[in-house]
């Protein structure tokens, strides 16, 4: 089992939950029906949850089969513990899709059998069991089991959840002692930073120079440098998300404007025998290269007709009016557009990025 995955699974899921990280593509948009949006979002979330639950349950059954096929296999037993923990963490136990107490007993039996066959891995087995108790909110048992794991052999994997539980229980004065024991067990920079950051937070030590004094100057310098890097990475990620959100809003607003133009053109277009309006377009390409075109409301997200027009070529198009005609780039992003209605003669300008009469 990859120890890094065990360290990061709970932290990643918990951070998303705590931060409320749900991206809302409709933020800041106007002219939408809030109730319809909420209904669509609720349906999408329910479908996503059902799919996620099915995947987790399938993985749980896979782990149960692996333990049954190889009794005493430590890796299989620890993976089973991890997946039962996910059932608690992600609400499957609460939603009655998994019998939590029975699943814990199943994990306990698997880990005990594995420990009998691999006594040298007792610390790892206890850490897996302790983390499962954390997810199940059996905090007293979590502390006792993780302390037993640290007593068997100090590890970062056991120390990080243990010191959080101790802090939550009002026992932060015990944190640094466990951190000192686990520090030699940090085998790479990921372990090292995870341990130092958790120890500083749960000991309430303040600045690294004071709160990590027990670890020494090299660890303090490492921690400060790595923290600065993480802050910069997070800022860049936030900026990227904000730019993406702004682009989605701009695309939606452009789509809405095109729809309004079409409605206005439809309202003003002359009728033909009581039927809907039509357009007849003669389009010339004055650009020095072939230009991609899209006939429809939104080239990026909508349905319509895609075509292209060669350099110094003229073509004719017709159909139901109004119809928005776009120049698009290689990623199907709209560059320029106009609404075709009635009989028109237009050209793609020599800049390759606009239209004008012809």
From TrEMBL:
UniProt KW Magnesium keyword: no
Biased composition (Basic and acidic residues): 250-265
Region (Disordered): 234-280
Gene3D superfamilies hit by this protein: Tetratricopeptide repeat domain
Signal peptide (residue range): 1-19
UniProtKB keywords: Signal
PROSITE patterns (UniProt xref): PROKAR_LIPOPROTEIN
Protein name per the record: Tetratricopeptide repeat protein
